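Prompt: For my understanding, could you write out one protein's sequence and backbone structure tokens?
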Amino acid sequence: MLVDKSSGLWASSSASLLLLRLVLPGCLADGILAVEPKNNLISYPLIPHSVEQARRQLYSSDSNNNHGRRLNRHRRALSDDPDQLSALFQGYGTHYVDLWCGSPTAQRQTVIVDTGSGVTAFPCSTCVDCGAPDYHIDALFQEDQSNTYQIVTCSGSQDCMSHISSCRKDHCVISQGYSEDSQYQAAEAIDRCYIGGPHEQPLDLLSERTNNDSATKKEAIDPTRASQLAFDLDFGCQTVVWNLFRTQLADGILGMNNGSGPFWKQMSQAGKLSQEQFALCFSRQPTAERKGTEAGAMTLGGVDTRLHTTPMVYTTKALGRGDYWNVKIRNMYFRRDGAVPTFVELTESQSNAAYQDAIVDSGTTDTFLSKTIQTAFVQQFEAWTGRQYENKAWSLTSEELNSFPTVVFQLESTQEDNPRIDPESTPGLTGPTVDPENPYDVLVAVPPSHYMEYDPSTNKYTPRIYFTDPKLFHILGANTMMGHDILFDAVNSRIGWAESDCDYIGLLSTNGYDFPITGNLQEGDTTTKKGTKDFLDFCDSPECYVPATIGMVVAICIGMCLCPALKCSCCYLFCCCCCCEKNTKSSTPGCDDCAVAGSELEMSGYMDEPEDDDDEEEASSSTGQKTKFRDRGRRNKNAESNGDFKDFI
């Protein structure tokens, strides 16, 4: 889901939210400001200092401590043996990941990780003025350089694989639009793809045949593990894009919602994901470079608790919002070091609990709340800061920024969602101090360094919490997600939250792996391998080298037969291919024995034939749907300039 920051519009198809009222609880202890300079993150502990001390004692307690045993069991219960850990990179407010597609040499396409949509798409070679190279990181995907690329053909829409595809002429077409008027059209296609891996080096997909061998399986944190999880991905090969899809830094989009066709679901169906779980850990960097600015990690098949600074706690995935990852917001807080917190409470008697739904949407850069709470929010913000809250650029010193309140969301949860956890001693839960009636609710903090976006070109900050139509539900966007490792657990219908610095490269370095980011993308060798060693590396299975060897022997014999200087020379080694001249006794040693055989060779198949005018047409048709689609795209480029796209693909 994409957002136009200037307009504050966001993509949605449902209505929501409710009436809030402002109260002062007078019962919350002061927090302690904590600064994490390594990633330019500022976080505010959500618990009293005395409780924090007790928790540190808990972590260092021996096995006789009951709470310690419960916490350890909880950690072991997590899926802490994931399939893959990949780098995330800083985009324009969103985060993207490397997606490599095609064979024998994979091509890199950077894609925004979007938990608010379900289709993966990026621009292909026939896409005109689609952002590359002026805006996007990578060049257009070249379908004709991939041996495994194919479009999805159809006789009706029931033949299309994507739920948003339709059958147009003889192939499936994807049309996707967003409320801020970003749109694209694409041909539905399939190709061999993997996610993550080294940022600038394609991995060999041909070695994937050994992936199921336990002896060759690499650990999840190893970047070269990525190609072992390659599978045939159904995606949109974009032919037309509009607005933000053209001007964004990343090339395309990676659908990760909870629907039927997102990337993680296809990976699971291909047998490459051990559990239908993935986690996103976002950090924020002050700038985003085209060569890549590392800003977090994506974990597939579970979580990696080495990223966590607090244990993971869970909210039940709220139902009723289609394919989104939903939560319910019970309350909101203002919080600042050394001040009494301001408490914004949802009033059940004045609203329907179903309208408290919020979606966790990594593809939306900002956070959007209902206008029904805008008045209370603005009044309290002004009382705390002396500034009127407006979505415009502000000149701030670092001291002024750090004096702003942290916004805290209280998300509904239960003891059933967090079994074997002590709410009083577990960071991230409300506990009996914050909300005695709901001690298992989850607290998610958004410090000012996250909701105030810095623009280095102007040296100003812009507030990125917006208030929108009350008929629309809340969106907790990328700026709310930052500073947390968030688990999207389809197996147990829940979302997990753990505070984290999301230091992917630091974790790799600690475990002995390098992750260079130099800006020099290695395209790989897309030409045919000619050397013997290269051929053996390329063709390393009996299914490949047995027929290839037979074919080479036959080709050598035929070549010798056709070359006058080499007539009869193959007789010595291969009597079956004897090339002695017809009806002539050869003087070449070894040819006497097969002269008769040579005289019986029928060479009419190698005689020159008249040129066939239809050769070109037949060759074109032999390429199948792939060539047909690409030619059609070229013929219809004029349709784009005329504004008529219905027959473009």
User: Anything to note?
Assistant: The mean pLDDT is 74. The longest strand covers residues 183-195. DSSP finds 16 helices and 30 strands in the chain.
